[in-house]
Amino acid sequence: MATMKRGSNVALTREIPSLTGLVLGVRWDAGAETALTDNLVVATILCDEHSKALSDEHFVFFNQLTEPSMTVSQLESAMGPDSEQIEIQLDAVPPEVRRIVVVMYLNEGMGLRRSLGRLRECVLRVLNLADNAELVRSENLALALDGETALTLGEVYRHSGDWKFKVIGEGYSTGIAGLAKDYGITL
Question: Has this prediction a pTM greater than 0.70?
Fold first, then answer.
C-alpha cells in the first residue's frame, strides 16, 4: 500500500493486468462536529474526454446510486473503515466514459455555516474489488482545507488503454454549485 500526494498518479491496470474492478473508499473524521458529518455528501461524476459529465444521470450520489450503464455504483453501506464507498466495474465501463471523478461536498440545505476545513481527516482509498486489498490511498487531504465547502478528491481515468488513478484534492469555496459548473451538471 502506497500513500499518494496531491497530483500524483498510478497506472492501475498496467501494474495489475488482472484488475477488473475497484472500490473507492472515502474516510473522514470530523471529531465531535456531527452537524458536519451528517451533511457530507460523496458523489461520483462520469465524464467525457473534456471532463464534463456525460449527462445529469451520470452523477452518482445518495439519491441516484448508479448511472445508466450500472458500472459505477455508490454502496448503500460502507464496509471497513470507510465512511462511503463506490464500486466500479472497470472492464464494463462504456468507452465514452474517460474519467470517473470522486467529489465531496456539504449539503447546502444544512442551515449552519460549516466548512470542510473542520475535518481532521479526509482520505480516498483504492481497493481491488476482487479481494478488497488496498492498492493505494491519498494523503490526508483535510490538512490543506480551510473554508472550502466542496472537494474533488481524485479520479480514475483512461490513459493509453489502461486505467490510472490520480489524487486531486482541489477544494471549492463555492460548494456544489462550483462543482456542478466545472463538470457541467444541472442542479
Answer: yes
